[in-house]
Design a protein that fits this description.
Blueprint lengths: L16 H5 L54 H5 L5 H9 L10 H28 L8 H15 L3 H6 L2 H20 L72 H5 L18 H4 L2
Length: 287
């Protein structure tokens, strides 16, 4: 089992002020995720929908008509999604509060083109903000701050600048710093550091497994049994936790874990989490 970490664990940190702003606020958004993004009929969505086409459940006031019963109606994917605050940024800042319903077609198309770009940038802001809150990453804090400033500046670009942005190249530059952050943080845990990066662990039987300090970046943990597993100090950036069983698992000190990842999983009141995320309602509601 993982010994105590040398630095304060993530469960001792509340979400930073910066992270609090990097969460979707539907009150300030024009329902962009319900229009701009496509989805296919599957276990996550009850229907097919093309990009740029409003979901039939979207009301005229930009609210979801079935929000209280999304899971029961076959729209689990909607309950998992989070724009990291990109929706309100594009709605209120990039396009100055102009509703996509009332503008000319070319502006509406640009809104839908820009939204996924800003969403990716805001996700990077979430990771960079978390990295700066990790004492073990202090050797790269200066570089992280510069990357945070650069990313924030990009989010404030004009619609034309955002549409032309090579967001993949920017993600790659930021990822170099996040990798270094991961190395520094996981070095603060004792014992052998397991490398499970991009590993295919779909349906794996990992009940009670010692994954403390593991590199689980991009790992496929779909429907994996992680009941009672030790994930303290693990790097979970990009890990696919859809339908993974985290019942009574210990994720304190785990980092780069987002609320959408967690909401896609299953768990219990006994699942221990970092302070930057919360127990999904459906874990205890039985839905």
């Amino acid at each position: 089992m993982l010994d105590a970490m040398r630095e304060p664990t993530a469960d001792q940190r509340e979400p930073t002020a910066g992270q609090a702003e990097l969460r979707g606020d539907c009150e300030r958004c024009f329902g962009l995720c319900c229009v701009a993004l496509p989805f296919a009929r599957s276990a996550d969505f009850a229907i097919d929908k093309d990009a740029g086409k409003p979901c039939p459940n979207l009301r005229d006031d930009h609210r979801c008509g079935i929000h209280a019963r999304l899971r029961q109606s076959g729209f689990t994917g909607c309950t998992v999604y989070d724009c990291f605050g990109a929706g309100q940024k594009v709605s209120q800042v990039t396009f100055g509060g102009q509703d996509w319903r009332t503008g000319p077609p070319e502006r509406t198309r640009r809104v839908f083109d820009v939204f996924p770009v800003v969403r990716q940038l805001h996700e990077l802001l979430w990771y960079l903000t978390e990295a700066l809150a990790l004492p073990a990453a202090r050797p790269v804090h200066a570089d992280l701050r510069r990357a945070l400033t650069d990313t924030e500046r990009l989010t404030e670009g004009s619609p034309e600048e955002l549409a032309a942005l090579d967001v993949a190249a920017h993600r790659q530059r930021v990822n170099v710093l996040l990798l270094r952050t991961s190395e520094l943080v996981r070095a603060g845990t004792r014992g052998k550091k397991k490398n499970r990066r991009n590993a295919d662990l779909m349906g794996a039987r990992l009940r009670g497994a010692d994954l403390g300090g593991a590199d689980l970046r991009g790992a496929y943990l779909i429907a994996a049994d992680l009941t009672g597993a030790d994930l303290r100090g693990a790097d979970l950036i990009g890990a696919d936790l859809r339908d993974a069983d985290l019942t009574d698992a210990d994720l304190t000190g785990a980092f780069f874990l987002t609320q959408p990842q967690l909401t896609a999983a299953r768990g219990s009141a006994g699942t221990r989490l970092p302070g930057s995320v919360s127990h999904p309602v459906h874990w205890t509601a039985g839905t």
